[in-house]
Design goal:
The structure is a homodimer of 157-residue chains. By secondary structure, chain A is of the alpha+beta class. The first copy, chain A, has 6 helices and 6 strands, in the order ααββααββββαα. In chain A, the strands form 2 sheets. The first copy, chain A, has a 3-stranded antiparallel sheet with strand order 3-4-5, covered by helices on one side. The first copy, chain A, has a two-stranded antiparallel ribbon with strand order 1-2. The longest helix of chain A has 17 residues. The structure holds a DNA duplex (30 and 30 nucleotides).
DNA sequence: TTGTGACAAAAAAGTGCTTTTTTTGTAGCA
DNA sequence: TGCTACAAAAAAAGCACTTTTTTGTCACAA
C-alpha cells in the first residue's frame, strides 16, 4: 500500500488503509476541520504527513473512547493552542479520554484539553493541610493508634 | 475546637469546623452513604476518624470541581472497591476531577473512579505502531525531512 | 450538643422530542 | 483515484419539562 519512496505524503487511500478510517471520513474531517492534510497537490488532492497520521490515529482512539467528534475538534484546537510544539505536536503526550473529558499529560501536568485548565489533587496534601491547621488532630490519631494497640486483646469487635 | 486528648474521634461539629462542611451535610451524607463515620457513640452520635476527615476533604474538593454528589458517591464506592487499602485508603492517591469524570492515579495507572476502567493513551505508542505496521511510512518521513532540508532555500512559503 | 423528622428551596438528573451533526452512498467530473 | 455535490440514514446534541436529590431551617427528643 505504502509504495513509492518518492511521494511527498500519504494519499487518502493510503491513510485509510493505515489508520482504519474510511476514505469518506477523511474527506469529511478535512472539510470540517478535524484533521486537515498538511499539504495538497496542485490538483487539490490531500497529502497527509506522518504527523497527520498520528493525529488521525489519536482522533480515532478518542472516538473509540466515546468522545464526540465535536469535542475532539475542540480538544485538538486546545492542544495546539496550549501546547505549541512545532514538529511533533502529539508525540510525548499521554492522553486520557473518557466519554466527556479529554485530558492531556505533559511534563507532569494534567490539562483538560477542552478548557485548558490544569490541576491535580493530591490527597496526601489534604492530609498535611489538616495537620497543619489542626495539629491536635494528628495527635489524636497517634493516641488512638496507641490505644488501639494497647486494647487489641481486650476488644472483641 | 479539637480539644480533648482522650476522645475517641471527631464529633460532627468538630468535623464541620475542620473541613468547612455543614453539620447538616454530614448528617445527610452519613444517612445516604457518602461518608459514614467509622464509629458511633452508644447514643448514636457520629465519631469521625482522621481517615474520615481526609475522605470528607476529598469529597469537598470534588464537589468544588463540579462533580455531583451522586457521582461522588459512586466514585467512592468504586475507589473502595478497586483499591482495597486498609488504613489510609485515600492517601498516596492523586485525584483529578472535571465536571463529569473522577480519575484516580495510583501506581502509575489512571482509573476512572466511576467505571473502574483503566487506560492511558500514549501518543508515542501510536507512532511506533504505525512504524511497526508500515516500515515504509517512517522511511518516507526521513526522506521528506531530507527533501525539506535540501529545499529550504528554494521554497518561499 | 446531636440526631430525627417535616417543610421548602435550590441543584441535579432523567425523559421525550426536535434539531443538528456525522457517516455513508451515489454519481459526475478532472 | 480523488474531489465535489446532493441525499439519506444513523448518531449526537439541545431543549423544555418532570422527577429526584441535596441543602437549609425549624421544632422537638435524647
Amino acid at each position: 500500500m505504502v509504495s513509492s519512496r518518492l511521494q511527498k505524503g500519504f494519499s487518502r487511500q493510503q491513510v485509510a488503509n493505515i489508520t482504519g478510517l474510511s476514505a469518506r471520513q477523511l474527506n469529511y474531517w478535512r472539510r470540517t476541520g478535524v484533521i486537515e492534510p498538511s499539504s495538497t497537490t496542485q490538483g487539490g488532492h490531500a497529502r497527509y504527513s506522518f504527523t497527520d497520521l498520528i493525529a488521525l490515529k489519536t482522533v480515532k482512539q478518542l472516538l473509540e473512547q466515546g468522545v464526540s467528534l465535536q469535542k475532539v475538534r475542540k480538544s485538538i484546537l486546545a492542544l495546539l493552542q496550549y501546547l505549541p510544539m512545532q514538529q511533533q505536536p502529539f508525540s510525548e503526550l499521554k492522553v486520557i479520554a473518557t466519554g466527556d473529558v479529554v485530558l492531556v499529560f505533559h511534563q507532569g501536568v494534567a490539562m483538560d484539553a477542552l478548557t485548558g485548565q490544569e490541576w491535580i489533587m493530591e490527597v496526601a496534601e489534604l492530609e498535611k493541610e489538616i495537620v497543619r491547621q489542626y495539629p491536635d488532630a494528628f495527635q489524636l490519631v497517634v493516641e488512638q493508634e496507641e490505644l488501639f494497640t494497647a486494647n487489641t486483646d481486650k476488644k472483641a469487635s
